[in-house]
Amino acid sequence: MTKNYVPLRVNRDFGDIINTYFDFFKRNIKKFTNVFISYNGIFLIGLLVASYLMVSGILGLIEIENNFGIETTNEEDFYIPMAIGGGLFFIIFVMVGALNYGLSTSYMVLYDNDPNESFQKKDVWAYTKSHMGSIILFILLLFVIYIGFLIVSIFFLIIPILGSLAQYVLQFFISAWVGVSFFEMLQNKKPVGAALSEGWNLVKNNFWRSVGVNFVMGLLLFILLMLMMTVPGVLFGIYTFHVVENSVSLTSNVVATVIYTICLTLALIVLIYGQCLTQFVNGILYYTLHEKTYNINTRKRIEQIGEDLNNA
Asked: Rounded CA gap, 164 and 159, in Å?
């Protein structure tokens, strides 16, 4: 075991889960970011292309609306690239979601299994690839789960105040359930249905701890992501001010398209990376709840103490 290794299989209380997350984050941010960049490269290029198409279409429609001298241009010339870009973005987003859900979870599974931290990025990819069928099926089921959540949320919003509170509680419960279930699926190689069932039991039996951790960490990660968004946000704001002040043509100016494309792409990359950080939260939660329920690590330590006493 390495000196700064953060053991995951410990029955922690609410505050310890938060502290452990940040310890794990500081310890593994560099190594995981290397994994993230290595296996998201082609998708990041795809996001850049999709962003360019969407930006080109949106800027053209804005310029037509504001009559910057292209009144005769057919709006379909801008709707088409925007639609293609939007469709390409959706496909890439689903693929990236499945990939990074798998990479972040596989990383923690290998970390838990290897206290010496000798695993490499290729091992993370190999573990993810070996479970890709289950990962894709799980992601597809998420669409069904969240459609159901949206339907229920509509009914909650009818109820003043309490309905909104109930909607947020349900949201954080589902986030915990889905994240914990995904870890159960990859950690113990269970079928999707069995993993969702086990995840449901773990989260339900520790309802407020699960909801509370996702609420607090969701808020903290939101603040972190907003700070990361300042780079594309400032760039977007400064150039938009320049466009407005100087009446720059949005469609004929290549610089405008490039800058807005870069801003959108950077924002999307931050959101995708944030998804991985959120899954790490549920990873700490999963190992905590699993240890509380089954005491696997505790029993191993007791057995090890017994063996040491017998050998003494």
From this structure: 7
